[in-house]
Each structure stands twice: as structure tokens, then as C-alpha cells.
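From the thread on structure requests for the teaching lab: each student submitted one protein with a one-line request. Submission from student K.M.:

"Model DNA starvation/stationary phase protection protein from Rhodococcus zopfii, C-alpha cells only."
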Amino acid sequence: MGKFTVPGLSEKDGERVAEVLQERLSAYNDLHLTLKHIHWNVVGPNFIGVHEMIDPQVELVRSYADDVAERIAALGASPQGTPGAIEKHRTWDDYSVGRDSAQAHLAALDLVYDGLIAGNRKAISEVGELDPITEDLLIGQTGQLEKFQWFVRAHLENASGSLANSGAATERKAADKARA
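Reply posted by the TA:
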């Protein structure tokens, strides 16, 4: 951490907010790589719709990573955008679905969004008392991520409102349930 942070924030609080944001930066970097993996590996009758739905998500998540990294720098810390940082901060399993159907990938992606959004909500809660500017940044990003998850879930939902991956605890199990 540098010898400064944003005006009105103590160095200690700036350091803590930067730590929380670093976890979000690593999560965003992991997500945009996962989304590209899905984009390249989706097959089947709904291929083109899912293929084209994913790219705007990739671009927006990349911009979120950039915004978060720039906020970390403004707080006086050094944002880490390396593969090692992703691994260091990862509290989830690496995406496990290879070449597969649109339904299988979307079912697994739904679980990815569950984890990412839950992590963002936790971060929002933690930084809210310390830094309302960072809280606002994360709230806006999380709202859009929840919208993307809704797009994904619309493909998985049946007429009664149940999701094809309901009850699955892992991406692989979610993919298996959606294929069944």
C-alpha cells in the first residue's frame, strides 16, 4: 500500500477497501475468462444465440475489472491482474465444463453467477460503512450481473418456474441436470 489513499478515508480503511476490491478484481478476471471459454465451447441448436449473448457479458465484465483496478490504484494500492492473483484469491473451483451444449453451459454458468454475485454482495456489505463510493461502484456492477444471470436463467426455466439445474451443487452436476 502506498502512503496515501483517497481524501476522507484513513490509510487503514483505504487498505481494507483495496483488499476487498482485489478479491473482486480477481473474480472479474476469472469470470471474463470463463465467459470466453463458454463462448468458444458452446455447441448445439441454441449455439448462435448463446454465443452472441456471451460476448457483451465478457466486455462488460472486463470493464468492471478495469474500474475496480483503477479504484484500487486511487486508494493507493497496486492492483494485481495476474493469473497468480486469480489463483491466490480463488475460493471456487475452476470452471469444469468443456465442449458442451448451450443448456449444459448455461446451467453451469448460473452457478458461477451465484458465487460471483454472493461475493459482490458480501463485499458491498463490508465496504459500505468504510467507503460509500466503492459501495456504489459495486452496487451498480452487481445489478448488471444480476441482469445477466436473469438472461442465463431464462434459458433454464420451465413454465412452472423451476430451473433445469435446481439443486445442483457443482457446475458439472448443473450441466448434467440440464442435459437430462
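TA comment: The chain has one domain: 11-179. Helices lie at 11-41, 47-74, 83-89, 102-128, 132-156, 171-179.
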